[in-house]
Amino acid sequence: MDGNRRWARQLGQPVLTGHAQGATTAAKVLEWWLKYLPTTAVGKREMRGGK
After folding, report:
1. What is the 3-state secondary structure (H, E, C) of 20-33?
2. N or C: which end of the chain has fewer CB within 10 A?
3. pLDDT digits (tens, 9 = 90+) for 1-14
């Protein structure tokens, strides 16, 4: 989370703002991952012949 602290300080914001932004970004990444990864995993399995 060091990058979040640095980001907040560069903007003159409290450190907790940086951590909150980092949590928001992590949630977006997780949402994307859950949306697209299962589709990719199933697709690869089917391409190998469904074994």
Report:
1. HHHHHHHHHHHHHH
2. C
3. 568 999 999 999 99
What token pair was written down for 30? Answer: 């997780």
d(CA 11, CA 27): 22
How does 11-35 read in b/e, with b if 16+ C-beta sit within 10 Å?
eeeeeebbeeebeeeeeeeeeeeee
Q: Which pTM does this prediction carry?
A: 0.63
Alpha helices of the chain — where are they, by DSSP H?
2-10, 15-47
Rounded Cα distance between 34 and 46, Å, is: 19
Per-domain residue ranges for the chain?
A: 2-47
